[in-house]
Amino acid sequence: MTEGERPTVDAKLAELVGQLADDAREVASAEIGLIKARVTTGVTRVRDAAILFAIAGVLALAALIALLVGLIATLSIYVGPALATAIVCGTVLVIAAILGFLGKGKLASRTPKP
Prior knowledge:
- The protein has helices at about 5-80, 80-110.
- It is an all-alpha fold.
- It has one domain (about 5-110).
- The chain is elongated.
């Protein structure tokens, strides 16, 4: 290689290194865009599922309330409205207390270890 060819080779190598850096930047930018798109899609799916679960919970609660009102109405024929309400509410509160204690027990048994 002659002295005149040396700058041409160095210039070509510098151009290739610059092109490699540009390509690496483009690939990194594309990867970041892909990750953002995946995260956005995942968040949207989770949000939509949460909305559907919330609606299902509200409807289930409405059905439970209707069931309890019907139970009170049915019992009131036999024991009167006040006693029927007391029986149904008392029973529901006992069930709620039992479930609450069971839930508390589950949390207490899972205390984090240092």
